[in-house]
Amino acid sequence: MDLTEVILTEGKVIQREVELGIDFFSYKFGDFKISRKSPVSIRIENMGDRKLVLEGTVDVEVLIPCARCLELVATGLHIQFDYETELDEKDYIDGYNLDVDQLVHDEALLCWPERILCREDCKGLCSTCGQNLNNGSCDCKRTDLDPRMAKILDIFSNFKEV
Predict the structure, then answer these.
(1) Which end of the chain is more exposed for a tag (fewer CB within 10 A), N or C?
(2) What per-residue confidence (pLDDT) applies to 161?
(3) Which residues, 6 or more positions from 110, have their beta carbon under 8 angstroms from its beta carbon?
(4) What is this structure's pTM?
């Protein structure tokens, strides 16, 4: 988005609807597909002394894996920002241009959900074979031991063989 008009005139305000150009949010945990998105509503005001006020909102729906069974869950994110920044202070402002996609990406990090479940009673995956237990059971031996106690179970198993 070209900021020339607002940067050159102190007190100038512009308001725009900008299409979000990204189809994925990429993080260290992987790429998350955006399944639905609204235009970014953005307002920019020149406060003088190389300071801008950025305000805006965008709604996106992202496909995020369930924390238990890994099925994709359509998760709505309402991204809202409102702050004052100096020119060239942020990685999404380059000269007279605002990278709206980068701005939204950075703001999405702040409202990203900690944990997503497909449903509250999700049974997860079998720790032995990987079967999604929501779709049916498997024939694996079930032990309800705390996984941190697995070494002790190994020790007992070794004594049985003697």
Answers:
(1) C
(2) 54
(3) none
(4) 0.76
